[in-house]
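Support request, please re-run this one:
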Amino acid sequence: MKLSISYLYCISTFALLATTLAEKSRALKGSPGARIRRGLSTGKNSKSSKEASDGIDNERPKQGVFLLSNQPNNQVGVWESLDTGDLVWHDRYDTGGIGYPDPQDEDHLNDLGGSNAIHYHTWNDKQWLLVSNAGGPQGMPSITIFSVQPNLELIKTDQVDLDGTFACTVAGYGDRACVMTCAGNVTMQCFQISPEGTLSPEFMYPFQLDLPEPDGRPNRVSAIHGPANILFSPNGKQVAVLMKGTVFISDRTDEAAFWSFPIMDRSMAPSTAGFGTPSIFELPNEILPFAFTWRSGADSDAPIAIIVNIAGQSQDYPLCGVSETCVSSLISIKAGISTNGSVILEEVEEEDLNVVDGCWIEYRNGRVYTGNFISDSITVATVDSDGKVQLERTVPVGIDTIVNDLITTGPKIDGSIFLYTENQGIGAEQKLGEIGIHSLLDDGLVQVHPATPIPSGVGGWVGSNGLAATTISEEELFQMYGYK
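Re-run finished. Output below.
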């Protein structure tokens, strides 16, 4: 069954692509004011951090892959990533929050429609996992933080209710965490992470977008509007948000845009916890930007943002959808810091991808990888430290896989790197989607391995949304825990 709500939203931006997906489906079917809830541990995360770590100090720390269920009782599924890249099921953990699956979609796949609904980072010699809980039709969004143990057990350390509605994307760097509520007026809410893993609200930015709700879907937004994702820059001196624009909202002139907030020491701007005034790089609505990632720049204070656009800047949506000329693209933007501390955003270039369905993006070692949901493929392009983009190839990864969100683990001890994809393809036997497994080879080739199904059976999920993974290398992981 080729049917996924995020894709249907994505494809609703293209009349032609929507028809294509439907045909495949039929064939297969045959901050301020934040309300803090401390120490809410349920289910598998009821142990204390000390209890969880006792007796495992001499065990080999494990790299993991983490998948968010986006169910009414939201959970995180955890797999161990083996040396071969294969995944071994570990366990699932309650977030304490509420997801937002679509009651009209029996599969509830990736219903948030964005990237980074779940985010991994390290700080203070610990591993952390941040989760955005959408909040359901009730409009009760929240952010959850877990401490990731070396054996991949998740210890829930805090959960905070959010102002606004429909949390859809989250990111962390050091002792900072920022989450977006993506419906209505749209807000960015940021927190300070304590060494014990508690969250203290310290900054809120209201975007005042006043986005409409989809018919019959209270307290949320269409996946083609509002924030695409939020990410801190590689050096932590900026946090950026990509906005998808309002091309399908009548009588609106809002542009799609890339927003970047400078970040300084908290003592330099105590009233805003060090967050500065955002700089905005406007993008034409008709390009339909869907996700972005970062890489380090030639200047350490000028990282490169890479945006994947469904329709492409040189195209004219919706006319290109009718005439079959939409071409997805990548746009690179240099994000420097001026002498007065503001962000300077400058487009470097745009490169067509020669596909019509680029939506998700991941960066690793000089290359970006886009998830292409209709062509069942991954496109590979190089992006250098000056932001120059060069398309390399598009790799098919299996008929009816519906490639979605994607993430890489840090290098194994032998240097091998694996790319994992949230595949939402549904065959006659597999009803719940799967995690695709791929080796990244030195020449930019992608080798496909057998996929791993997401949880099923009694207590299983009906869908999923969002991937994260252990992004540091095994060597760094071993050093963190003194393993030899």
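The radius of gyration is 21 Å. The first strand starts at residue 35 and ends at 38.
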